[in-house]
Description:
By secondary structure, this protein is α/β, with parallel strands linked by helices. It has a single domain (83-293), classed as 3-Layer(aba) Sandwich (Glycerol-3-phosphate (1)-acyltransferase), CATH 3.40.1130. It is 44% helix and 16% strand. The protein has helices spanning 2-13, 18-32, 39-48, 54-73, 75-80, 83-89, 115-125, 138-151, 164-171, 204-212, 246-263; strands at residues 90-93, 105-108, 128-132, 154-158, 175-178, 190-194, 197-201, 215-223, 230-234. Strands 1-9-8-2-5-3-4 form a 7-stranded mixed sheet, sandwiched between helices. Strands 6-7 form a two-stranded antiparallel sheet. Strand 6 and strand 7 form a beta hairpin. Helix 2 crosses helix 4 (54-73) and helix 3 crosses helix 4. The chain is globular and about 50 Å long.
Amino acid sequence: xxxxxxxxxxxxxxxxxxxxxxxxxxxxxxxxxxxxxxxxxxxxxxxxxxxxxxxxxxxxxxxxxxxxxxxxxxxxxxxxxxxxxxxxxxxxxxxxxxxxxxxxxxxxxxxxxxxxxxxxxxxxxxxxxxxxxxxxxxxxxxxxxxxxxxxxxxxxxxxxxxxxxxxxxxxxxxxxxxxxxxxxxxxxxxxxxxxxxxxxxxxxxxxxxxxxxxxxxxxxxxxxxxxxxxxxxxxxxxxxxxxxxxxxxxxxxxxxxxxxxxxxxxxxxxxxxxxxxxxxxxxxxxxxxxxxxx
Length: 294
């Protein structure tokens, strides 16, 4: 019942302009920042910006939650609006960097709040493939899959099925939209610095690039100010990647993601438990509420 009511609300909201959705998101964020919902965000900001004052981090947390909530309120646009609205809403910057001379392509992108808009718009532009974990709620998962099928030629592959289907899809010319900055545990992970903190990082990107001969093209999607929509920005393809040094490749990947998180700090996914897995299992739980935040 709760899920169906939420979907009905999203359906109604998708008729509204972005300015109205942003205003609603700001109101909800002002409430959310004072609840346990903001706990992970505040702990991450405390760890990554120790030089900031508590008041500065609280302001950033409120801005982040407003951006994140707005992105959720906008899901109805992706699920029910015509393609023409999404094409107008999401623009490209430096699209020329997305050309790879016929080579396979992997788009490296961080978890910014515009990731769903980015995935939808890129799926409308390129034959794509995505690698994902199904949503726990089957009804929401169905809407996500149907929207991707409706908007573009994108094949969605579940992580549990392994990498072989993904490799075949990349070699077949489908462009991979890849977001590696999540904590998948210590299995097959390398601990690489992220904001100076060792973070469990899967080395899948350099491995896939080597296996498929793909060129890695970084890109991001940011919410534009004044409710102007979103902008997907492409960067030049990486030279000499992968290298012979796997640790260096993973550090390069994390450094790019960190640079974009610093560039648009309110839009990075601070609500994700990026540092949950620690190099030393005896370390205290990272997301225990520290006294310094009280």
